[in-house]
């Protein structure tokens, strides 16, 4: 990882499609942008005159706000398009929407969509850069990048670390991007959830699978605790949030048995008393708010790199291209 | 048309109220702004410190986004106000809303309203410039200006061209603004639709009227194909979208019988397979995405001209003023 | 009041917590910002690189727009977050939301909330500055500051003036902030409403209370007429809007019996024919639109002062801090 690396991809679609070197280059770039956000004037003119569209097919406040801030701190102009009801787009297809946005001379489209692979389709249809802000249960690459950035900042490295991802793995794009990213950088990844929340075949990604929370916590250098969505997907797997908390919730008692400096991450927003107790969320091991801070720096890096990609090449490997 | 023309109108309310010379001056100004949007830094400081309010009483993504981008590329600040439910404005009248916006020292109000003539009322009530972004079935002047700009860019002139407007003429503000604009610049305009979608007395504007699609296509230099709104207004006139497509839809077969370089326009979003086939929409004669691109340049020109109008005069002729 | 005063509070939570000297310093600062809004380029770079979040838990167009414009005219970046349904925040607490926003390195949070005291809680939880844009029936300090600014601009002073606040005092945060502000600056304040719309114990703030509109108007130098919300809170107190207008509505006839230069204020939007006739709203004594204009200057002053507070101290007196 050095500043001699030349970034060539026009899009960021998922960590599956990036090399370790590319991931490290994003982290390296994010570190220098993080310094910007500590200045009195938290703004650099590197994307002045560029335009970013936030095209959100699912409601989002946190991710949209983080991208909007990142773009503004790079001096780009930002347009928010919330596409929550089909009537708004009058039935226009994703590709037609993309081509119309491209025709507006938009440099970067940040897209969130309920369909896995939607950003890939968009990226192939337009010359604008496409950044995936979460697609179905597929990937949420900037979330994983900020998780990795935060952990590396905390422990100095990723390689050789033992990272456990705990929660609804089956319905989590955050889990999927985390797995790709941490494994590519040489961490040992365990996923831990009730049986019904483990997707079939997940072992093939190289992760260790367990249903036992104690096994997941033992020797872990870091845990990434996923949000349980009892109001949505997770409800099928477990009788109640209370039951889940009893069996899998991260409590002070459980943390006391872990490595002393175990790093506790969570993508937010936290369900206090469901996947994690308040003591842990606000405790000394938690880096949850640092993750939020680092999200800006990581997204600044991603927007900057894709917008200024040298000799841009396809962002997907040939196999995926020919899907 | 030259750069010696001095623009004096504070508002853009409709093409009905503009002279051919004024329309040409907007096109001339738009051409120079189009160049700006091809630069690396797509931004000029001409409206720095000015404020534009997008006051939309009807939902809109495309037109609002285009105006927002145009304003930002002129370095203006933009505020979006979506007034979709009466509760938001707590029953305030249009004139009170306008005077409040004026009191905020807003330079330009871009307004879309379901009532024909609403922008005219607003323009008479405030010193701020008012730009009509679509009012009822009355006018959508910037759409017509971008249609004219695109056709002129493609064919080098407007005068003497044969332009056919096809679709729901009765419920289309786009049609109305197109008719005013093209006729003032010397084109021969035909409107073509099923009988029930032709407004009574439309011949008085100087257009030729037909219900026969073949007559509309024959000898046409350009066609402007309107969106059919079978979910709304158009449904009364025709049994089904399929039936409409069969009788009036623009297909490759129909295009093959036209002039070789016939220009195909559509204000978007397209109903593929209703008013136009995908082959035509994406084909060599289509300039639909160029229209989107040109929309930015035309709106930059309009915002620039009304904001910096010299010795501003009333934007409406005396007759209309005294309505 | 001079420019040697040093502002130290990081927040603006209510006029209850400010000294007369602090209120006067805001007015003094607002006067210089008002001059900015009369320039061709209505913008100063004093908050460049700072970020303002408008965090609105209640819908608002007027106040949100005014704060957004104020921030942009100071060259700050602005992010709007509308939290109208709990689903948007997925049940996150106010404090968690605040800490997340703080982690985004936001300089100022402008908050509107239906719960009285919510901004106080937020201010204690974050290092970011917090500006109250209206909380429950508690305070709406920037509205009162712009009322005071406008009256002082008109009559040259506040001390010794007789100011009557007329309308639904019980359910009005505007009334409460007005009372604190005007009394601290030495005005004599009368509140006038039907009995049921006078909150219990209001006399303890030092105001004179009456149910008689004639008494409230007699000798008044200024009146601040509140919006009657017959669709909400006010309906319990009175049979109908028409009945209210007859007994308490400000009409030309009533104004004729007042001091010749009586100043008529209203926070907007006006219910014409309910709390005030159109003749009065648009008449020579009305400063209602000047209030709107001054709102920008006052909010620019507040954002500027809290963002650049020297040696920031707590914004609440010890008593409130320890609540």
Task: Walk me through this protein's architecture.
- With about 325 residues, chain A is of the alpha/beta class.
- Chain A has 2 domains: about 15-140 and about 295-315, Rossmann fold; about 140-290, 3-Layer(aba) Sandwich (Rossmann fold).
- Helix content of chain A is about 40%, strand content about 15%.
- Chain A has a 5-stranded parallel β-sheet. In chain A, strands 2-1-3-4 form a 4-stranded parallel β-sheet, sandwiched between helices.
- In chain A, strand 1, helix 2 and strand 2 form a beta-alpha-beta unit.
- Chains in contact: A-B, A-C, B-C.
- Chains B and C meet through strand 2, helix 3 and helix 4 of B and helix 2 and helix 12 of C.
Give the SSE map.
The structure is a homotrimer of 323-residue chains.
Chain A: H1 20-36, E1 51-56, H2 62-73, E2 77-82, H3 86-89, H4 94-103, E3 108-113, H5 118-125, E4 129-135, H6 141-155, E5 162-166, H7 173-184, E6 188-192, E7 208-210, H8 213-217, E8 222-225, H9 241-248, H10 252-256, E9 263-265, H11 278-281, H12 288-307, H13 318-321
Parallel strand pairs in A: 1-2, 1-3, 3-4, 5-6, 5-8, 6-7, 8-9
Helix pairs in contact in A: 1-6, 1-12, 2-12, 4-5, 6-7, 6-12
Quaternary state reads homotrimer
Tell me the Rg of chain A in angstroms: 19 Å
CATH fold type of the largest domain in chain A: Rossmann fold
Question: How would you classify the helix and strand content of chain A by structural class?
Answer: alpha/beta
What is the count of helical runs of chain A?
13
